[in-house]
Design brief:
Blueprint: E1 2-10, E2 19-26, E3 29-34, E4 42-43, E5 48-51, E6 53-58, H1 76-92, E7 95-100, H2 107-117, E8 124-127, H3 149-162, E9 166-170, H4 189-201, E10 205-212, H5 213-222, E11 226-233, H6 244-252, E12 256-258, H7 272-288, E13 291-292, H8 308-319, H9 323-330, H10 332-337, E14 355-358, E15 374-377, E16 380-383
Parallel strand pairs: 1-4, 1-5, 6-7, 7-8, 9-10, 10-11, 11-12, 12-13
Antiparallel strand pairs: 1-2, 2-3, 5-14, 14-15, 15-16
Helix pairs in contact: 3-4, 4-5, 5-6, 8-9
Bound molecules: zinc ion.
Residues 57, 59, 101, 297 line the site of zinc ion.
């Protein structure tokens, strides 16, 4: 498909401001961006183009309407259509790439491949398969339990054989698993370091689920690529164990933090104590230079796969970001963090044609993301305009 879009206002995914001109798309790729108009191009005067959005933490197999993790459908004949429906809802909401951080039977990899082949519309997916966890640990029901390092490496090798794009490890306990405690570290630094090294030898990055401060520290020291949640849980409770030295080691290791602040966090805004605590943690992290990427943990109870655009203003509020900083975290920065920095996340020549056309000024108001006028994923027009 060739698509020539004229008279656009363009935000390329990293600059401070817009440029004006045309975007020429050939096949799945951006062929040219230039100031001049292009012959026979479509007049898009009044519209703003930005890169498609990236959700760096989702679970395609999980149904957000189900509370008990053991109640999820496993029957593939029912599960696959539900996953296809979620993927369609995501692209219709402007999400053109998502990183799937766990499932039990690699069904999300089948969905990834179906989307890549063009069989079904959906965001470009990169998938971790079964997360490595401790025995009885967080999300052990997905099959990635490991009692020691050698068992953990076996689980890792199995994921590679299945064709995963990255490795996920549960560095601490989590909320949705009965018997698991978010404050507790599940692996020591040596084990995590060996897992990171093995993943690296296969050209894969590691995402580490971390609520408790000890697990955050272990994961940072081990050199994981992204720390998920980063909730600073300590013995005194949620968010109360922020530690400057740990933030410093996150920065030194160039680890990204993926806070999974979803739209549901809106409800915490009325709790001033909580607002102050969360904002102060992010202020301190950012003062150290910790880099953030946007993520929702879609699939967990009440967190819907297509609600990234509802989450972004809430993320903006709690992390005290400007709209541009928030967009960076959902486009070019995110792409770089998840290993797709040379493929998507920006509107540049040679990049995948993943873009949204908006009516409004997203660098000043994120709410305009809620109603994209046009959506193009990998050169395919998802929303006609
Ligand atoms: Zn998750």
């Amino acid at each position: 498909m060739t698509l020539n879009l004229n008279h656009l206002r363009i935000w390329n995914g990293f600059d401070d401001d817009y440029q004006f001109g045309h975007i020429a798309i050939v096949g799945d790729c951006i062929k040219e961006i230039a100031e001049s108009a292009i012959l026979n191009g479509r007049d898009c005067a009044g519209l703003t183009a930005i890169p498609g959005l990236i959700d760096a933490h989702v679970h395609m197999v999980l149904d957000p309407c189900i509370r008990n993790p053991f109640d999820h459908i496993t029957d593939l004949e029912k599960l696959m259509p539900a996953m296809v429906e979620r993927a369609l809802a995501m692209v219709n909401a402007g999400i053109t790439t998502a990183r799937d951080l766990g499932g039990g039977n690699w069904h999300e990899l089948a969905l990834r491949d179906a989307i890549a082949r063009g069989d079904v519309p959906g965001p470009r997916l990169i998938c971790s398969g079964q997360p490595i966890t401790s025995v009885g640990g967080h999300c052990h029901f997905w099959g990635g339990e490991a009692a020691d390092l050698s068992a953990a490496l076996d689980i890792l090798e199995k994921q590679i054989e299945k064709g995963v794009d990255l490795i996920k490890i549960m560095a601490t306990g989590g909320n949705i698993t009965p018997g698991s405690r978010p404050v507790e570290a599940q692996f020591d630094t040596n084990t995590l370091s060996a897992i990171v090294a093995r993943a690296k030898s296969h050209g894969r990055h590691v995402a580490a689920h971390c609520h408790g401060v000890e697990g955050i520290h272990n994961a940072a020291k081990a050199g994981v690529t992204t720390i998920e949640h980063c909730s600073w849980v300590g013995k005194q409770g949620w968010g109360l164990a922020y530690d400057d030295a740990v933030a410093q080691s996150i920065v030194e290791q160039k680890t990204w933090v993926s806070p999974t602040i979803n739209a549901g966090w809106q409800r915490f805004k009325s709790d001033q104590k909580r607002v102050d605590l969360v904002q102060s943690n992010y202020r301190k992290m950012r003062a150290h230079g910790v880099q953030l990427i946007a993520s929702t943990d879609a699939g967990i109870p009440n967190v819907f796969h297509h609600h990234l655009v509802k989450a972004l203003p809430v993320f903006q509020f709690f992390a005290e970001l400007t709209p541009r900083e928030t967009l960076l975290a959902a486009t070019s920065s995110s792409a770089e963090a998840i290993g797709l920095g040379e493929i998507t996340g920006q509107l540049s020549c040679g990049y995948a044609a993943d873009l949204l056309l908006l009516d409004g000024d997203p660098l000043n108001d994120l709410s305009v993301l809620e109603n994209p006028v046009g959506i193009i994923v990998n050169g395919r027009l998802i929303k006609e305009f």
